[in-house]
Write a structure and sequence with these properties.
globular; alpha+beta; 33% helix; seven-stranded mixed β-sheet; Glutaredoxin; 157 residues; 9 strands
């Protein structure tokens, strides 16, 4: 994983353009997702770890609310497409997981590491124009990411 972090993106910044493979091996261009819906992009350390499973299942459990608020949810980690497919299937995740091998997109966002070596857990709420409206960073409160994102989305609508 690339440990050099570029400038951290902040509230009011536009997200960078990126293209990654989803859990089905299909290419996803984030810029093509903008315009119609807000996005919630959450970076998480690794598939099938305790905190990441809790976080992803929390997004799953509230997914209908995200859809009601006009938002798509996207999870990103450096796991492989195959790992994402297994993780998604095992936990019945209804949203997209993107494989960021090498951490290039994580680096573009400037997602910090936790404790100096664990990939960080950070959630971004992005409006339809691609502007970051909220950032929540907490390694130890995975369920709070969902609560924070929904609160912000309700304010955008």
């Amino acid at each position: 994983m690339n440990t050099t972090v570029t400038k951290r993106l902040g509230i009011g910044d536009h997200i960078p353009n990126f293209v990654l493979a989803n859990q089905d091996g299909k290419t996803v261009d984030v810029k093509k997702l903008l315009g119609d819906k807000n996005l919630v992009i959450y970076f998480y350390p690794r598939d099938n770890t305790l905190g990441c499973t809790i976080e992803s299942c929390s997004f799953r459990d509230e997914y209908a609310q995200f859809k009601d608020e006009g938002a798509d949810v996207i999870g990103i980690s450096s796991d492989t497409v195959d790992s994402h497919k297994e993780f998604s299937n095992e936990h019945h995740l209804p949203f997209t997981l993107l494989s960021d091998l090498g951490g290039k997109v994580r680096n573009l966002f400037g997602v910090p590491s936790a404790f100096g070596f664990i990939p960080g857990r950070v959630t971004y709420v992005i409006d339809k124009e691609g502007v970051i409206r909220h950032i929540f960073n907490s390694q130890i409160r995975p369920q709070k990411h969902v609560e924070e994102a929904l609160k912000v989305l309700r304010g955008l609508n």
